Predict the structure of Histidinol-phosphate aminotransferase.
Amino acid sequence: MTDFNAKELANLGVRTLSPYQAGKPIEEVERELGIKNIIKLASNENPLGLSEKVKQALQDALQGLARYPDANGFYLKTKLAEKFGVNTNQITLGNGSNDVLELLARTFVDASHEVIFAQHAFVVYPLVTQAIGAKGVAVPAKDYGHDLPAMLKAITPNTRMIFIANPNNPTGTFLTKEELAEFIAKVPSNVLVVLDEAYYEYVEAAERAPSVEWVAKYPNLIVSRTFSKAYGLAGLRAGYAISHPEVADLMNRIRQPFNMNSLSLRAAEVVLDDQDYLDESIRVNQEGMKQLVAFCEQKGLNYIPSHGNFLTIEVGDAAADIYQKLLHAGVIVRPVAGYQLPRHLRVSIGLPAENQAFIDAMTTLLHG
Ligand SMILES: *Cc1c(COP(=O)(O)O)cnc(C)c1O
């Protein structure tokens, strides 16, 4: 037993990996600080809660839970295929889009490869890259966002995959469809471009890239989306990729057959048709964004203009301390020091009263 050293047995990439740091759960803050009525603005969840139609569908679906889920997600894929004008064999379902991102890396990348992503980009990209033992190449950001020309220059013969989050989390930065189109056209076809559009629904319709249409033209492009944000299913875990059929076929070989469970499949099917819920999510987000932006302007706080459902605010050198003090005031936000943004905090857009609770707590801290 004394000779046992698990770390020496773990694969090389995993030994030095730091685990994903999730937003602090409400229950944990209640337990640790002994306070109630906590407001969580830390994980970009939908503040509306579950769609009523989904709640009903979940009740009905309880009956079937002793059975395995449909491993191929036939109904959900059929719905998605119709909605986006693609074939069902181009869709890969995931236990959240995080699952899809990991499947992509595990399917196509090995230890001899390089994977490109931007500084301040979603942490899952370096995480899945390092877990495989591949080399992550973080390209310095431009105005907190992706510097696409620099990312093109970073491509080497060893590059196998490029991750792009649009809008990006945690910065909320956004690439126009023109910028993206130019970039994708220049990437060699043996390099896969993963376009992570987790916040796609929040982007103004006129500004959205026709990314799914591009998949027909660029077989090396994969679009990933989620039900966790605007569709409000974060706790159920539902996401998907749209890709060339051969890409989907390869991913399917390592996908856990039941990676989406019966409840998440059913909820995703139902919420896709709930246009009222989606419209309301977008409206609440636009209102809340105005509320937080107005607060920042009024207090002279810098913020990164955001196209997502969150705002990343520069609160200064005391960011870690302010985060703690907000916790004690019952407001959970997200520190982003791990994203090389030690002076910022990311605040998810909540309901008006939740945003106000953050504003009030912050105001007290600023003047206290
Ligand atoms: C939230 C988020 C995701 C995915 O979340 P899932 O819940 O796993 O679908 C993916 N990419 C980005 C950039 C995100 O912010």
Observations:
- The two ends are 55 Å apart (CA to CA).
- DSSP finds 15 helices and 13 strands in the chain.
- Residues 22-49+276-367 form a domain with the Aspartate Aminotransferase, domain 1 fold (CATH 3.90.1150.10).
- The chain has a mean pLDDT of 96.
